[in-house]
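Quick one: structure for this chain?
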Amino acid sequence: MEEVLRFALIGLGLGAMYSLASQGLVLIYRGSGVLNFAQGAVGMLGAYVYYEARTTFELPFLVSALIGIAASGIVGVLVQVVIMRRLKNASPLARIVATLGILLTLQSLAVLKYGGRTTFVTPELPQGVIPLSGSIVLPWDRLIMVVIAVVLTVILWAVYKYSRFGLGTSAVAENELAASTLGWSSDRIAMINWAVGSALAGLAAILVSPIITLQVSVMTNLVLAAMATALIAGFRSFPIALVAGLVIGMMQTAVGRFSADIPGLADSLPLVAIVIILLVRGKSLPLRDYIFQKLPLVGSGRIRWRIVVPVLVAAAILIIAVPPRWQDALTITIAAAMITLSIVLLTGYAGQISLAQFAMAGFGAFIAGRMVSIWHVSFEVALISGILATIPVGILIALPAVRTRGITLAVVTLGLGTTLEFMVFNSDFLTGGFFGTQIGQPRLFGLNISAIVHPERYGLVALGLLLLMTLVVGNIRRGRSGRKLIAVRTNERAAAALGISITSAKLYAFGVAAGIAACGGIILAFRSESIVFGSTFTSFNSISAVGWAMIGGIGFLLGPLFGATLAPGSIGAALLNAIPGEFSTFLPLVSGVLIIFFVIQNQNGVAKEMSTLFKGLLPKLARDAKAHSSRELMVPNAAPVRVSQKVLEVRNLTVRYGGTVAVEGVTLTVRPGQVLGLIGPNGAGKTSIIDAITGFAPQTEGDVILDGVKMNDLSAMRRARAGVSRSFQSLELFEDCTVLDNLLTAADPFESGSYFLEIFRPSKPRLSPATIEAIREFDLADELDTVVENLPYGKRRLVALARAVAIEPSILLLDEPAAGLGDVESAELAEMVRKLAKNWGIGVLLVEHDMNFVMGLCDEIVVVDFGKKIAEGSPAEVRGDSLVLEAYLGAPSSEEITEGMNR
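Got it. Here's what it folds into:
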């Protein structure tokens, strides 16, 4: 026990560093809403500036430290002013990729200057020890580091709790628009927080560099432990971050001492903490306004064979004709393109940010390599086995995605991928140590395809596999599976309301993407007769791959080919090598700078620009594609639709949010063909009732019964499949999709088998009778090929209603469908809703503030106030009810009230 305590106290220095770096992360997040993945790299820069000032210029310790801290702070200011301010309204993906680009840029600059060597930093703090008990001692330098961390924590806590600046930071974090009306500049607050947060990273790196040495990769990887600390603190509490950092540092050091035979266990400890914390909390961080921010565009997934076939033939000829050095570069580019293609599927289509794709690639290569090395299986068996074995690992990594999203998911996947790197790829026992895994010369169906002996054969095999993986991703995009993934990417609430299983979609995307990445990883690894995993399948490359995908076009099939040219050893590196000088060493730096440039200027990537150029240069092919699309959009005549007749009963429904009672004991019944109005003043609980009925809010008490079957325990997705559909106040359409895709997503059958079958062949879009009738009823035939965000507001309202009825619901809940419409549009909408009830047999529950609309349309009306039902009856009975009149307008004369309700 004494020895455990001894090493735990030694870990106080590392813990103090984690605490300081995490305080910086908290500051930056609170001030700008950005999770800075480059925090470790910013700290590294400060540490190297300190080292140069101290050793090269022989400045005093304190002066050198202040210069290093100031350098990190200045970098933070530049990042906010030059980059992050321009991404203020960008998607969370763009902000994350921007910080990854900064990380790559800073790390590449450091590598160009210092290489991969380890630099030993002379300790400047006192090196004696303080005896505590027996053999237990506390080093003076660790104590001083802890004191510095504690003092700074107290200062930060006081400033952000009691000062005007702290108040302004909290105000901007809660509501940026409201804070700006009070005179607070969000840009200035963000800049100051970036400066202080980055300076803290520099201080932490300077203090810890004598303990862990100064090395580029080590310093940048320390951000993971700092993130674990900040997550424990909820990205808000400075004292909790202090304690958490100290505990993690002590535990990591103690575990490292007593688990030397388990490689990577100590380094993985903070990463495991990240996963556990996020799984327990089960929600994403409070990101501001992300639902309204635009994601990168998504391509159609259509493969134009008249262009693809000549390009493939040219690529094959090129692989055969060029010298071996260029053949290897082309093969690396193809392998990196496959790994990047997995990101197109996972992030571009499904919206799931993963920083573990090179880890998935490495795992596939690990399984395939060990099978060849130990069991001497053929290449095709090893390839298939590696892919199939990686798919469940991808699904396992996807489990946190069910409960987290956005930047939290990025942190989780980076943590899990890095854990795999530390504990598997860096294990001498598992991978063969210094000499790696020996695989010899691979044979495909008996034919030698060794990349060393026959590089042209190996390159052609790689090209064929890339084509196969591209076909898989294209098939998914064009089928039902692709529509489901894009729905989840765009709006999970709306997707669930259409009966789409969010969990299934995410697990599917992660699993298939893992298999595709594994294929690329196997091709990358089998180029040599010995696989060395640690230098290839790193978390740094996983981070880089997301940047490659963004540069190439993260939503386009063609994007990976462009992005992969930035991979180490790729054709891009070969071209730079052809220039006299060591230009290839600048490729990582070029990659980082390009990532930042594209995130700011063009989030859609090179592929989108090439697509636009293609349409201009080859107008005939573009017109043919348009005509093909138009033929698919032809709407046949629809047969009359009658939905399944079901009765919705709500009994004694109560909804609580914490200590607030939003709905209390409400009972109502919606019958087939009936329009039941639900009215009440603002804040009466109407939307909460709809949310509870459809599964978007928890039922504290009461029952929701559909046709005699209780739905209390059913998710929103299962309630939608049972026949309960809804619209939203804010519409929540899939804005970057066409009208037809919105309707098809709703009309697609709930067949889980399509996820598997569409890997091989996409299902043709079919318009159900209900969808066709909805298109006709709402007069949407001319807008089917129009992207929703380009429609006028009134049309978008109609699209939202058409999408809600396209799933052929028995019960339809409409939340303020007439909001924002004029009198003529409202009258037309009322007629459409009446037809849905009378002709389709749908039971409609209508929430609306337009009393003329409600009174003229509804068969019966339920009135709620402060969450309780106060009246129920026909429109005439409700109009004259004294409780209703008082709830709406207080207690003036009945004539005044009636006149007000008639307006």
